[in-house]
Amino acid sequence: MNKKLKNAIMINISNTLFSTAVKCTILVVFVASLAINFWPAIWGMIQKESKDVYINSDVVLSYIEDENIHFMENGYGEEKADILINYQDGKYKIIIKTSQGERYSDVIMNTVLMHNLSQYIEANETTLTEHDIEILLNRNIELESEVDDTTLENSMHLFILATGVLIFFLMSLLLVRIGAEVGNEKGSKVTEIILTSISKKQFYISHILGSMTVIFISFIIIFMPIVIAVVNDDASLTQDYSLIGTATMVKIFIHCVITGAGLMTLAVSVCSYVKQTEDIGPLNLMIMAPMFLSYIYFGFTVSPYHGPLGWVTYVPIFSFYQNFCGIIKNEFSNTDFIVIEGIAILFAGMIYKFGYYAFSKNIAVDE
Fold first, then answer.
1. What is the 3-state secondary structure (H, E, C) of 52-72?
2. What global pTM score does this model have?
3. What is the rounded distance in angstroms from the CA atom of residue 17 to the CA atom of residue 8?
4. 77: alpha, beta or left, given left = phi > 0 and alpha = psi -120 to 50?
5. Could you report the per-residue pLDDT of 72-91, keeping only the tens digit for each?
6. Is 16 in contact with 181 (CB distance < 8 Å)?
């Protein structure tokens, strides 16, 4: 790589990455990614609500293992207790005094029930059979569930939607910014000055490599909080990615970078057709249209293409979000992933080749 081309690439990266719009967008996306991935910790700070409950009881209850439940010495601090338990003449009287106590009312009722049964069994130990005791303590009941716990799966769906919004927001702005840079250079006739120092091919390569570098850096910034959350692996602080895994995260990153590179190459090529700066908007909308359709379908289904639309899976850009979703849900085998991303790379290569032809024909302003 000669010095002029290297300088052109560095200038292109600097102009794009350090523009006010891109810096603000990357900052907003990074903060949003932090919030999404560290939501359990943030929610815990927002709530700031004590989970402790204090019980004043004249009965010793030995079946409570909840660390948030604290027993006060009987007769002291009744006014501070959340729950009062009195036992007199063989009857229990439970008084719920606070809303915090109300949250634990079921726990206390079950605990008193167990205590009651224990006392009854102890008093009638000589007359009760082992089978009677099993019935009284509900040991003759076996509960099995054939329904999968979808808590983590639902959390994963929320992650997919939230991350999809961030990526769409970032890609939209970068496409507009990179396309606008090409159009502005041509519209303001800066291109003619630049082409006195470097060839059209070098100018084209500088835009492509500069755009790809910006895309790569942007996705690294988005994925940094995700990587931290995966490494931290503490559900009380970060999102639980146990259903996704590190290998899947790497695949997602590769998918985003490859698709982003193809889109940026398309933006550089198409925006070279601009005759006037105000023409940039419609061209950018045309470039974003396939990705927007993919995003709309993704927003309603949160799933890959199936059935009659299954073939669209192998059409780059139109299937960006569907394949993103399929990778996270592990609906693609390693072979499927290689084929899909291989086609995306071929697509980007074709855009690069034909894009250069369009770029070289149209980048200079006609006199």
1. CEEEEECCCCCCCCCCCEEEE
2. 0.68
3. 14
4. left
5. 766 666 777 888 888 888 78
6. yes
